[in-house]
Design a protein that fits this description.
The chain is globular and about 35 Å long. It is of the alpha+beta class. 15% of the residues are buried. The mean pLDDT is 81. Strand 4 and strand 5 (64-68) form a beta hairpin. The protein has helices spanning 2-10, 71-75; strands at 16-21, 26-31, 40-44, 55-58, 64-68. A five-stranded antiparallel beta sheet has the order 1-2-3-4-5.
């Protein structure tokens, strides 16, 4: 996660992050600026491990962009050839 975050910070696309832990979910939120709502959230929900997969990337509008059992696979949504920020 931090490798992808570092790459996007170096590109000037992201500037801040937050890690949040709840009883049923762990969340890594990514922000364009520190005062904004999160652009993306990377969630781990162990209860979904056997169903849809415990990892998910969720976009700004709450849409699930990618879900799976393997974190590396889910983070591929941020590959530079597939992903670009539109303003």
């Amino acid at each position: 996660m931090l490798r992808v975050y570092g790459r996007m910070v170096a590109a000037g696309e992201w500037r801040d992050y937050a890690m949040i832990g709840h009883k049923e979910v762990a969340e890594f939120a990514i922000f364009r600026r520190s005062g904004d709502a999160p652009l993306y959230r990377i969630e781990k929900r162990p209860a979904l491990r056997l169903k849809q997969g415990q990892w998910a990337v969720i976009g700004e509008g709450g849409h699930v962009l990618k879900r799976g059992r393997d974190l590396a696979q889910v983070l591929r949504v941020f590959d530079s050839r597939k992903f670009s920020v539109v303003e």
